[in-house]
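Hi team,

Below is the intake form for Nucleoside hydrolase from Candidatus Cetobacterium colombiensis. Please confirm the fields before the structure is written into the shared record.

FORM ID: S-0412
PROTEIN: Nucleoside hydrolase
ORGANISM: Candidatus Cetobacterium colombiensis
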Amino acid sequence: MKKVIIDCDPGIDDSLALLLALKSSELDVIGITICAGNVPVEIGGINAYRVLKMLNREDIPIYLGDNNPMRRDLVTAQDTHGDDGVGDILPKVEIPKDAIKLGAVDYLLDTLKEKENVSIIALGPMTNLAKAVERERDILKKAERIVSMGGAFRTNGNCSQVGEFNYWVDPESVNIVFENVDRPIELIPLDVTRKIVLTPNYREYLKQMKNDVAQFMYDITGFYVDFHWMQERTLGCVINDPLAVAYFIEPSLCSGILTHLECVETGRAMGQTLIDIGDFYRKTPNVFINTEVDEKKFFELFFNKIFPENKKDNELVLKGY
Ligand code: BDR
Ligand code: CA
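The structure came back. Fields below:
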C-alpha cells in the first residue's frame, strides 16, 4: 500500500476521486488537506467528510488550508460544482466536533518530515503545497511522488483560452512548487482529462446499480452534466480528478513527455502552462506531462475499484451492451 495525502477542493470530481482512492487497496490515504478552489475551504472540508462518512472512514483526518490563493483573491467554481460544491442536491450533513481541523500546511510539513515514502495527489490549486514550500524550501523533496491535476498543453483552457482552473486560480503557487522539487511532478492536464467523460450511459448504469455509493455519484454529477451542456454542449461530464488517482495507481493508463513547465502569472494568458518541449532554456525537467490516455482502461479501473462486487456488469457496460 502506498501512503498518500490527497490535497483537494471538493468539488464534484474531487469527491469522485476521493471515493476512488478510498476504495483502492493500493492506497493508504493517510490524510486529506483542503485547498481553496472550487469552493471556499470550509465547504471543501464538509464535502471531504461526506465521502469519508459514506465509506465509514472518519478515521482519516481532514485539515483545512487558507481561504485565499498565495497572492490574490479566490475565484471559486461554484457555477460548475454548485454553491455547496456537490451539485446542490444533498441533505446537510452534521459535522462532529474535531472532524475537520485547521492547519493543512502544518500537517503537510509534519507528515512529510516524520513519515517516509509519502506521496501527494494534488487535485486543486497548489496553494497548500506552495505555502509549505515557503515555510521550508526543501519539503516537497521528501515526497515520494507528486501527481497534480492541472494545466493545459495542446488543448484550450477551461477558464480562458489557455488557463486551466487549478493553475489559473493560483499561478504563483504553481511556480513556487515546480521550482522547488527535485524530481518531476507527474502532471495530469486537461489534454488527458477531457477524454474522461462520464457519459449519460455510465450515469444510467450508476442509477441502475441501486446502491448508496452509486446513487451519490449519480446525484452529485447531475449539476455538472447541466453545466457541461450549457457551457460546451458536451453530453455527460468531464471528471478530471479521478484520472489523477487512477494514474497514480496505474501509470500505464497514460503516457507523456519529460520536460520543463512554468506558469504565466499575469495578463490574458494567466494560468497558461508554458511547456518547453523544444528545450529552449536547457532547464532541468520538472514535469512529466501526460499527453495520451486510454480512457476505456480508465473506466474499467474506475468501476472495478469502486464497485468490485459488480465486475460482470461493469464489463458488459464497458463493452457497450
Ligand atoms: C479542475 O478544476 C476543478 O473544477 C476540478 O475539480 C478539477 O480539479 C479541472 O480544471
Ligand atoms: Ca479539483
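SUMMARY LINE: The longest strand covers residues 27-34.

Thanks, M.
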